[in-house]
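Might you be able to review the protein record set out just below?
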Amino acid sequence: MPTLQDPLTIVTDLDGSLLDHHTYGWEPAESWLARLQAQHIPLVICSSKTAAEIIPLQRALGISGAPFIAENGAVVRLDDTARPAPFLPGNKADYPVLCQRLAELRARHAFKFTGFADVSEKEVSEWTGLTEHDATLARMREASESIIWRDSAEQFALFRQQLEAQDLTLVQGGRFWHVMRQGSGKGAALRWLLQHSSLSDSATVTIGLGDGPNDAPMLDIVDYAVVIKGYSKNPVILQRQDKHNIYHTAHFGPEGWSEGLTYFITQ
C-alpha cells in the first residue's frame, strides 16, 4: 500500500464522489484534503463538469492552476488554457458544431431528447439542483453536450448508430448522457495528461476515485481504484483484473471518498 510519503497523484471525479450528489458539498473530505495539501500531493479533477465550473472549485479547494480534465475527457487543461481534447488529432468537434449536428439528427429522425443548449439556466438548475449562477457555468460548454433522452430504446440504438457515423460517441454519467468526439473520454484524457504534464514522472503512484459508469475508463488505468457507492442504476464495471487494487466503498459521496483514501493510503 502507498504512503503519504510516496510520489502520489490523486485523480478524482466530482459529482457523487468528492462532491455530495445532492448538496455538492465536500465537508466530509476536508481532513483528507488537508493531508494531501500538507504533503503537496497533486489532486487532479477528472469530471463531467465544464472548465468554467472547475476553475472556481479549484480555487475553493486551494489547488488553483493544477491540471484538470473537464466534460468527461472532451476538454483537458494543462495550465491556464482549457482546450478541446489535444490527444485527438484535428479535433474540430467544438460545441457549436456539435449542437448543430445534434439538431440535424433530431430533425431528420424525430429523436426526442433535450440538451443544455435547448434550455435556459433555470431549467438546468431544476434538473441538477445547482444555483442559476452555477447552472450558467454548466452551460459554458466547449466540446461536449449533455442530454436527457426521452425516446424509446429502439430510437436510442439508432441515435447511437447515427452518432458513430459522425465520429461521435455517447458516455453515460450520473444524471445525463454526454455526446462527444469518438476517442475522447476520461481514460484517454488521463493517459494523455499523465504523459504530457508535470505529473509525467514514471514513479508517480495514481489513486483514482469515481462513482459512475463514465469513471470506469479512468479507474481502469490508475494504480489503485476506488469505486464510490453511487446512485446510478448501472454498475461501475472495470476491465482490470488486479482485484486487490480495487476498493468498493460502503459510503456515498465525500464520505466514501475519504473511506477509499483511508483504505489504500498507509498513514
Q: What stands out?
A: The chain is about 35% helix and 20% strand. The chain has a mean pLDDT of 92. The two ends are 10 Å apart (CA to CA). The CA atoms of residues 64 and 79 lie 10 Å apart.
